[in-house]
Specification:
The structure is a single chain. The protein is an alpha/beta fold. Helix content is 38%, strand content 21%. It folds into two domains: 142 residues, Nucleotidyltransferase, domain 5; 188 residues, Nucleotidyltransferase, domain 5, CATH 3.30.420. The chain is built from 14 helices and 13 strands. Helix 7 crosses helix 8 and helix 11 packs across helix 13. It is globular and about 55 Å long. The chain starts with a strand and ends with a helix.
Length: 388
């Protein structure tokens, strides 16, 4: 049976799913977390053979090479059956602006994107390179997360810095969660009162990280995000858009290195920084949302006050971002949302939309499946290549 494997990796994790290439039936899935941190864990659910695997590594995994060895151990029995592997790659380039079959020759050109990409890009390319070596008979597809933003006007991407930085070093705004936002719009298309080809829609992915996209007549007009994560919306641990002078001030005030300062903005800010909570269910429960959740710890009165303030910040910043996109679109026909925050926080989202003056827009909530979206893209590419 021919199979499709899809990989989604980050600084400290690797997610993988294995599908039947004919009908995309899910055959196995798993994840490795805590890579380069501790503790680490490896979980595998082999649906085809009804087998479960769960391992913990208290001291963590040293690097992604260890994670690849774990995954390779499972995949060794499927080496001849895997016909294609889909890799989610954060950032492409002028030469890699659409899903591309990667081989050992053009991999060197793709590797040049590391010069202007976030650290996660190096991890993405590591697994792609290892797959090229181990699965020589399989087609390797690079699926770029920023492809969805190709239609955004250059004026919206350019940063008001010396133009040489853009021309020579490709420093500009880049979008994130593009594969998910395309899936969100596709999932909502059958419910939209006005067809996608004529509609003005805002899509939102509200999960560990938050991102918004303005779509006009099926093409992206604007998005939340910048060169990296600093210009985008906040998340569970990320600060999002912050005046850079705050970073310089903290460095001087507390004698921090640049790395230590960035760590504060990426790992100790967002919801965690505001109220000490690192997940949306607990936050929403304490914020008064009626959801099925049992608190693991009893929060003090002071902490509950922090949650109250955090809720106000969440509502304000989301509404501000939505209103900005709505202003560019004009009359917004629909707002389509996905992710844990939108799934559980219906009352909070209602407050956000009201504050952004989007009460009249059609509201649609969908559930995303990133791995399936990647597998569908690989499947479509395989069919195209067969026809050729």
């Amino acid at each position: 049976m021919a199979k499709i494997l899809v990989l989604n990796s980050g600084s400290t994790f690797l997610n993988f799913k294995l599908y039947n290439s004919v009908d995309l039936t899910l055959l196995a899935f798993g994840q490795i977390t805590g890579i380069t941190t501790a503790p680490a864990s490896y979980s595998l659910n082999d649906l085809e053979h009804q087998a479960l695997t769960a391992k913990t590594f208290p001291e963590g995994l040293a690097d992604h090479e260890d994670a690849w060895l774990l995954l390779s151990g499972f995949l060794k029995n499927y080496q001849e059956q895997i016909v294609a592997i889909g890799h989610l790659i954060l950032r492409g380039s002028k030469d890699f602006c659409q899903t591309t079959i990667v081989n050992e020759i053009n991999f060197e050109s793709l590797a040049k994107t590391l010069d202007y990409s976030p650290p996660e890009q190096k991890v993405n390319l590591y697994y792609l390179q290892e797959s090229l070596t181990k699965f020589k008979s399989a087609l390797q597809f690079a699926i770029f997360d920023d492809t969805w933003y190709q239609t955004v006007p250059l004026a919206a991407k350019i940063l008001p810095l010396p133009l040489a930085y853009y021309r020579e070093h490709k420093i500009r705004r880049y979008g994130s969660d593009g594969v998910l936002h395309r899936q969100i719009l596709n999932l909502a298309s059958s419910e939209l009162i006005i067809p996608v080809s004529r509609a003005k829609v805002i899509t939102g992915y509200l999960d560990k990280t938050l991102s918004l996209v303005a779509v006009k007549r099926g093409q992206v007009l604007e998005f939340s995000g910048g060169f990296g994560k600093a210009e985008g919306l906040f998340g569970l641990t990320e600060a999002g858009e912050i005046d850079p002078e705050v970073i310089w001030y903290l460095q001087n005030k507390f004698n921090l290195s640049a790395k230590e300062a960035v760590e504060i903005f990426r790992e100790k800010s967002g919801l965690v920084g505001l109220c000490g909570i690192d997940n949306w269910p607990e936050f929403l429960f304490l914020a008064g949302e009626k959801i099925d959740y049992t608190p693991k710890v009893k929060r003090l009165a002071e902490e509950k006050e922090m949650v109250k303030l955090a809720k106000e910040v969440v509502v304000y910043r989301l509404a501000k971002a939505l209103a900005g996109l709505a202003g560019l679109l004009g009359q917004v026909e629909a707002v389509v949302l996905a992710g844990e925050l939108s799934e559980l926080g219906k009352n909070l989202i209602k407050q956000v939309l009201h504050k952004a003056n989007l009460d009249q827009a059609q509201k649609i909530f969908v559930k995303t499946d990133l791995a399936l979206a990647l597998a569908q893209e690989v499947s479509a590419q395989l069919k195209t290549n067969i026809k050729k």
